[in-house]
Structures are given as C-alpha cells and as structure tokens.
Specification:
CATH topology of one domain: ABC transporter involved in vitamin B12 uptake, BtuC
Order of helices and strands: HHHHHHHHHHHHHH
Shape: globular
Helix content: over 70%
Distance between the termini: 37 Å
Largest sheet: none
CATH architecture of one domain: Orthogonal Bundle
Number of strands: 0
Oligomer: single chain
Strand content: under 5%
Length: 348
C-alpha cells in the first residue's frame, strides 16, 4: 500500500503545482493586457497599429511622434499604478495573516496616517514633488517604528491569538492621532493648496512618476513572503500549535509587520491613500483560489496591480478630458464588492 500511495501523492502535488503556474500565467497575461489597454485608451485613443508602432519607436529610442509621446506618458502612469496596486494587495494579505483578521487592510495600523501627516506637512510648507514623496515615506516609516516599539513585546511573543488585539488597538490609537493632525493642517491650509491636499488624501495617480524604489520594495517583500508562505499557512490553520510544529512565530510576526509597513509606506507615498485595494483583492483571490498563501501571495499581487491599472484607466477616461481621483473609483467599486463578500462570508 505504501508503494501506491507515494505516486498518488506525487501526482497530486504535480497537478497542484501545474495549476498554480497556470493561474499565475493567466493573471500575468491579464496584467499585461490591462497595461496595454491603459496605453491605448485616453482623450486621444491609439489604435492597435498605432500602439505597436509606438512601442517599436520607443524601443528604438524615437519619441518624436505623438503616439510615442502618449505611449511614454501612459505607460509610466500604468506601471506606477500597477506597482502601487500590487503593493497594497500584498500588504493586505500580509496584514490579514499578521492580525488573523479577514477585515484587516494595509491602513488598519495607521502607517498611512503617518504618510498623510508627512505629505500634507510638505504640501503646506513646500511645493517640490520629491519633498512631498520623501515626507510621506518618512512619516509612514516613523509611525511604523513607533508601532514596532510600542508593540514589540506582542510581536515577539509566540502566542498569536491573544496579542493581535493589542497590536490592532495600538494602531487604531496612533491612526486617530494622525487623523487629528491631518484635520488641523487641512483647517489652516490656504485655498490654493487645499485642493491638492484633498486629492492626495483621496488617492490620485495623475502626478506620479515611475520610480525604481517601489519596485524594489515590492520585489523584496514578495520574495520574502513567498519563502515563508508555508509557515504562514501553519499559523493560519494551527495558531496555537504552530510553535510546536517548528514555526518561529515571533520572528514570523515581525517579518510580516515589517513587510506590510514597507509596502504600505511605498504605496501611500507614491499615490496617496487609495482605499479598498488591500481589502477586497485578497478576499477575492482567497474566494477564487483558496487560502494557500503559496499561491495567494503572488496571485493577489498580480490582481491588485491589474485592478488599480483598470480603475485608473476608468478614472481618466470616464469624463475625459477631466480626470477623477482613482481613489473615488476604487471606493465606488470596493463598497458593493466588499458588501457582497461579507454576504458570502455570512452564508458560509
């Protein structure tokens, strides 16, 4: 009987791996299609022939034509939107695993509040775009370090169930303090800067520039999280017995917190507080693909990037030439989708 069980297990494992690669390949093709759609759609549409002609011109380094110029502008924005959406979705999966709460999102611990305080302070006293981005990233990292110091004992402790509420409560209190500072700055801001501050708080990709730092943060966090995906599965399924199964729960929780904080800081400093991406995308992937984090982590990353690219394309074409903040579109889509997900969770 042992000789027949081993091939059966091996076959099932091979089929599972083949299915995972097939799913990830399909999601990667969908992500590529969304970026091409974003490059072709706009106030001045590009046909398929114009789009691929502009791509060939860009490869040769020729940006003299209108099509090549539009491609460069739209491609930079689409790639920026993809990396922001991917970071938010991946941060949502990690935050839900850290807190063992399916309602957690990247903003629940107040890291985005620190970014908002830094960005709005820079908008209030400076005008350079690089200063706003640096201030937002610095504010997010400062709040993350404060949370780490306040909840260091809870993150170090191996007991998962009892300590998550303390970390969550600490984050909520810190977020409330950041919210008070944001309200204060909005109340004293001059009228000529108030509109930009409000747009940043809603979430907007119109002023983003393609940078390598968010891609490096995303790649590092994705590689690290996929390497510990088995341990995350054990903690999710056997929380109290995870330590006895060989999982180092304390270092695992610290790693999840650091990765989620860095991802949230990178996303918020690039495009503002775009809501619902880190909440509905992990749920949708978990419903469709199951709870295995070995597949869930890369799948949510691809779906989150694709979702934000499509949402931003809709935001800039819905009432073109006027552009809407992409955070409005994600909220209008996210609210009914999340309510539907809650309905399915209740039925289960």
């Amino acid at each position: 009987m042992q000789t027949t069980a081993q091939p059966t297990f091996s076959t099932a494992h091979t089929r599972g791996a083949s299915r995972a690669w097939l799913v990830l390949g399909a999601l990667a093709l969908l992500a590529l299609a969304s970026i091409l759609l974003a490059c072709s759609v706009g106030s001045v549409a590009l046909s398929a022939a114009d789009l691929f002609g502009a791509i060939s011109e860009a490869v040769r380094g020729d940006h003299s034509t209108l099509a090549a110029t539009l491609l460069e502008l739209r491609l930079n924005r689409a790639l920026s939107g993809f990396v922001v959406g991917a970071m938010l979705a991946l941060a949502g999966v990690l935050m839900q695993a850290l807190l063992r709460n399916p309602l957690a999102d990247p903003y629940v611990l107040g890291v985005s509040g620190g970014a908002a305080v830094g960005a709005l302070a820079a908008m209030l006293f400076f005008t350079a775009a690089w200063a706003i981005d640096m201030a937002a990233f610095g504010g997010a990292i400062a709040v993350a370090l404060l949370l780490f110091l306040l909840a260091h004992r809870d993150l170090r402790n191996g007991a998962v169930e009892g300590n998550a509420p303390f970390l969550l409560l600490t984050g909520v209190i810190v977020a409330s303090g950041c919210g008070a500072l944001v309200t204060l700055m909005l109340s004293i801001a001059p009228d000529n800067r108030l509109r930009g501050m409000v747009f940043w708080l809603i979430g907007d990709l119109s002023g983003t520039q393609l940078r390598w730092l968010p891609w490096l943060v995303l790649a590092g966090a994705l590689i690290f999280s996929t390497r510990i995906a088995r341990a995350i599965n054990m903690v999710a399924q056997h929380a109290e017995a995870a330590a006895t199964l060989g999982v180092r729960v304390g270092p695992l929780r610290k790693g999840l917190f650091v990765c989620a904080a860095l991802l949230t800081a990178g996303a918020v400093s690039s495009a503002g507080s775009i809501g619902f991406v880190g909440l509905i995308v992990p749920h949708a992937c978990r419903f469709a693909l199951g709870p295995d984090h070995r597949l869930l982590l890369p799948a949510a990353t691809l779906v989150g990037g694709t979702f934000l690219v499509l949402a931003d394309t809709l935001a800039r074409t819905l009432i073109a030439p006027q552009q809407l903040p992409v955070g409005v579109i994600t909220a209008l889509i996210g609210v009914p989708v999340f309510l539907l997900q809650l309905h399915h969770m209740r039925r289960r």
